[in-house]
């Protein structure tokens, strides 16, 4: 075990936003960074790309739809680091608007990965989180229509929070929660960011029909 070494982990880190997060963590985080991906070849290729840039992330396979894959990652983190300091839940799939597959089938597949897969990762990895940490998770909220006003953003936020579905049941008592919500309309320049501070050990509720990134940051306190 690497005693005293801090570790940050990014799910879905082989491309896009996930890869960019891994890159910045490698540059700024005072510890080791673990890049995870469902496909081993693509994950290792991403690590090689970052190594060519002078960075040194580690790779570990993770399929968030596979409970055994999640448990294997959990055991790796316990053996290597004795826990986890930073978790970025980025892995997910996009709803394909142009896909002829019936809506209800796409919705079921999307929710299985983006909601339940992420829930399963948190179930296994949250108990590993050490005090004085930051946990960032990426969820989804409904996208607003083009031309909608700031007031409609707030209305949508209120409706979404009321509609809700349970995501976390209980959090470790040393965690405080800071919510960072991005409601991104078609015009990106109109992006709104809302921040909330919520007590620990709170059951959170979220909307089932989701399209826009929703970030939760859990800040540990000793």
From TrEMBL:
Alphabetized SUPFAM superfamilies for the sequence: NAD(P)-binding Rossmann-fold domains (SSF51735)
UniProt-recorded Gene Ontology molecular function terms: carbonyl reductase (NADPH) activity
Record keywords: NADP, Oxidoreductase
Domain of life assignment: Eukaryota
Family: Belongs to the short-chain dehydrogenases/reductases (SDR) family.
Role summary: NADPH-dependent reductase with broad substrate specificity. Catalyzes the reduction of a wide variety of carbonyl compounds including quinones, prostaglandins, menadione, plus various xenobiotics. Catalyzes the reduction of the antitumor anthracyclines doxorubicin and daunorubicin to the cardiotoxic compounds doxorubicinol and daunorubicinol. Can convert prostaglandin E to prostaglandin F2-alpha. Can bind glutathione, which explains its higher affinity for glutathione-conjugated substrates. Catalyzes the reduction of S-nitrosoglutathione.
Name of protein: Carbonyl reductase 3
Organism per entry: Cercocebus atys
The organism's taxonomic lineage, starting at the top: Eukaryota, Metazoa, Chordata, Craniata, Vertebrata
């Amino acid at each position: 075990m690497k005693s005293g070494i801090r570790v940050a982990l990014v799910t879905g880190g082989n491309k896009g936003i996930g890869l960019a997060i891994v890159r910045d963590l490698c540059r700024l985080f005072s510890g080791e960074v673990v890049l995870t991906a469902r496909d081993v070849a693509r994950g290792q290729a991403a690590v090689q790309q970052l190594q060519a840039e002078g960075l040194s992330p580690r790779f570990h396979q993770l399929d968030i739809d596979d409970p055994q894959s999640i448990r294997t990652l959990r055991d790796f983190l316990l053996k290597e680091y004795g826990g986890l300091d930073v978790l970025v839940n980025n892995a997910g799939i996009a709803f394909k608007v142009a896909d002829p597959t019936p809506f209800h089938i796409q919705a079921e597949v999307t929710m299985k990965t983006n909601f339940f897969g992420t829930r399963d990762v948190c179930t296994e990895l949250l108990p590993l989180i050490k005090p004085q940490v930051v946990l960032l998770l990426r969820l989804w909220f409904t996208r607003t229509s083009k031309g909608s006003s700031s007031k409609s953003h707030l209305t949508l936020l209120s409706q979404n929070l009321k509609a809700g579905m349970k995501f976390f049941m209980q959090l470790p008592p040393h965690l405080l929660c800071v919510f960072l919500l991005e409601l991104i309309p078609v015009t990106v320049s109109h992006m709104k960011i809302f921040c909330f501070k919520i007590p620990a050990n709170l059951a959170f509720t979220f909307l089932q029909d989701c399209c826009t990134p929703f970030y939760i940051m859990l800040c540990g306190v000793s």
